[in-house]
């Protein structure tokens, strides 16, 4: 198969290979990664044809473009020898076409005159068509890969542009700064689009977000052609509270308004108020022979319970019969607020997987975000289910903590071993306070703060001038 060079953006490195493979799966294309390193934006892959390359790269969020590889080498002499060997038979196809040559350096570069000399060094290809910087018939690029603070490139590639991705256009269109209705917890648009790709969103599929908030994930899925709907425990978020305070905006904005903004309203089935443990959606019994799932995918960012503890519908204490009847009589009254109770974070993760097993079609995907920490003592175990295969784990690192994007595939009935679906009773955190039911939340406010205090104390000790007694003590220690 022909070799191609994928030019990645240098962002979200642990997501790049996963997205690329997911896009190949969606397109029904066989892709093999030949060389890839997270500290380099250049990836060499095998693909069947230029058509397959276009299909894979068209909706990528982390790739900038894909090029047919015409040569590579550690020096320009080696590069030119490689170009002769690999691509000499193809030159005649572009002999009279308009063309463009450019030079790109990663972690280094050349002056304009030096770039002109590099381009002139390919004169042996004898193209007779006119040079054209805008909309040429064919475009070529030299890629120079440098080590930091080194003047000479360590490796070189030369390729013919096949297609650019939708990265820049999609990021610009769905930028949260331009979205009419958002909240403080709205997920970055780039990550929602990336999640949709990894979850195998495609035209005609049905996707659901049980924690939809202002609709970021459903909007991303609708952009890639899926039919979407969602729910949230807080109905006020779905209905909107009057819009944001951005200049020039008036009137009320809500989730429906966001879909209208992007002309995606026809892909939005609607939303309802619910939590995952009390969902009105059809839940199938845990039967390995069951093939009656109806969702093609689930994408979500469950609440981490940091600002306020996790809650589900229900009472903290056992209700008396008269109290239960009172709620039953009131729940249809406008303005009724149902009672909520604290809930275990690990139990929520298991509930999400159980819900996915009961609702996903075979080979359907669920992609969910889960917090973790940059500390071995604050690690959360990745949840699992015998009917789900963990297909990828991607990490977005912050200063003191991280979050993972976990993607699971709903196994087919024939892949689930006998006896694995028997109910296993699990022990979850117990208590009535939010921190009792969420180990990550407790460590976030205790462990992280203690660590930060230790750092500040260490800096203070280094900055304070030593007294004579301190000096004497140090001298005693040295002797």
Structural class by helix and strand composition: alpha/beta
Percentage of residues in strands: 15-25%
Number of helices: 14
Distance between termini?
A: 70 Å
Radius of gyration (CA) equals: 28 Å
**Rounded average pLDDT:** 84
CATH C-level class of the largest domain: Alpha Beta
Q: Any idea of the CATH topology of the largest domain?
A: Rossmann fold
General form = elongated
CATH superfamily of the largest domain: Vaccinia Virus protein VP39
Domain tRNA (guanine(10)-N(2))-methyltransferase TRMT11 N-terminal: 3-167
Domain Ribosomal RNA large subunit methyltransferase K/L-like methyltransferase: 179-309
EC number: 2.1.1.214
Main location: cytoplasm
How is this fold's topology laid out?
Blueprint: E1 3-8, H1 13-27, E2 32-35, E3 42-46, H2 50-57, E4 63-73, H3 76-87, E5 99-106, H4 112-120, E6 138-145, E7 155-164, H5 167-173, H6 189-198, E8 206-209, H7 216-223, E9 227-232, H8 235-239, H9 255-261, E10 268-273, E11 295-300, E12 311-313, H10 321-330, E13 340-342, H11 345-359, E14 360-373, E15 388-397, E16 401-410, H12 439-445, H13 447-463, H14 468-478
Parallel strand pairs: 5-6, 8-9, 8-11, 9-10, 11-14
Antiparallel strand pairs: 1-3, 1-4, 2-3, 4-7, 6-7, 12-13, 14-16, 15-16
Helix pairs in contact: 1-2, 6-7, 12-13
Keywords: Cytoplasm, Methyltransferase, RNA-binding, S-adenosyl-L-methionine, Transferase, tRNA processing, tRNA-binding
EC number: 2.1.1.214
Subcellular location: Cytoplasm
Description:
Its EC number is 2.1.1.214. By secondary structure, the chain is an alpha/beta fold. It folds into two domains: 3-169, VC0802-like; 175-415, 3-Layer(aba) Sandwich (Rossmann fold), CATH 3.40.50. Helices cover 29% and strands 24% of the residues. The chain has 14 helices and 16 strands. The chain has helices at residues 13-27, 50-57, 76-87, 112-120, 167-173, 189-198, 216-223, 235-239, 255-261, 321-330, 345-359, 439-445, 447-463, 468-478; strands at 3-8, 32-35, 42-46, 63-73, 99-106, 138-145, 155-164, 206-209, 227-232, 268-273, 295-300, 311-313, 340-342, 360-373, 388-397, 401-410.
